[in-house]
Design a protein that fits this description.
RT_dom; globular; two-stranded antiparallel sheet; alpha+beta; Reverse transcriptase domain-containing protein
Length: 229
């Protein structure tokens, strides 16, 4: 079992060989966490607690699966929102992209009303608006970059980019996705996702090597001091 805490979000992760084993561990761990939080004088709203099972093909939770913590029944759902990302049991992020597409299209449509083809803001302002939608779209990219292998996910993320790119480039609605991106000066987001994910992993690897080196130096210094004694 592992525990992840970020701000006011607490995530309990349990692993096991079967759903029954995982459920027992998750319930025990959640009871412990709730007890520690209550000991601090705080209250946990178990009615808002969500449960999700990560599983492989044909290994989903049994029908009506649920966890029971302090008398509260927590149903095991097919997806769960955590820190702005919609996670699903198969880790393919399709629910995330479906939810994201609607929000991005609405935001792009709202900004598009401020960007008429004739007149309106200058090109720098239009690029700024494109950047706003891009930041919303690429949030958490190093987590879900592999999910863009699925064509349906790529199409879900391309639609809002085309909407804002057409407005930024002052194009007609019939202009293709590729042409609109070129004219607006914004490469396809799936390309940017690959770059962001590669940079993230490179930085994480560098940080890990530096941490290991510092640990080695500390161990060496401790040994040297011991020898001097």
């Amino acid at each position: 079992m592992r525990l992840f805490c970020y701000a006011d979000d607490t995530l309990v992760v349990a692993s096991g060989g079967s759903f029954g084993e995982v459920a027992q561990l998750a319930m025990a761990g959640t009871r412990l966490v709730v007890g520690r939080i209550q000991a601090l004088g705080l209250r946990v709203s178990l009615d808002k607690t969500e449960a999700l099972l990560f599983h492989g093909p044909r290994m989903g939770p049994p029908s009506g699966a649920a966890l029971v913590v302090e008398g509260v029944r927590i149903s095991v759902a097919s997806s769960m929102k955590y820190l702005g990302l919609v996670l699903d049991g198969r880790w393919n992020f399709e629910p995330h992209f479906k939810s994201l597409e609607g929000r991005l299209v609405r935001a792009a449509g709202a900004l598009g009303k401020l960007l008429p083809n004739l007149g309106g803001p200058c090109q720098s302002v239009r690029r700024l608006y494109c950047g706003i939608i891009r930041s919303m779209a690429l949030y958490g990219a190093p987590i879900w970059d592999d999910a863009l292998i699925r064509r349906t996910n790529r199409m879900l993320i391309r639609r809002p980019q085309r909407v804002i790119a057409v407005r930024a480039a002052r194009c007609y609605r019939t202009v293709s996705f590729e042409a609109a991106c070129v004219l607006a000066g914004t490469p396809p987001w799936e390309w940017e996702v690959e770059l962001i994910a590669a940079l993230y992993r490179a930085k994480a690897e560098t940080k890990s090597r530096a941490s290991a080196m510092n640990h080695l130096k500390a161990t060496h210094n401790d040994t040297w001091h011991a020898l001097r004694l």
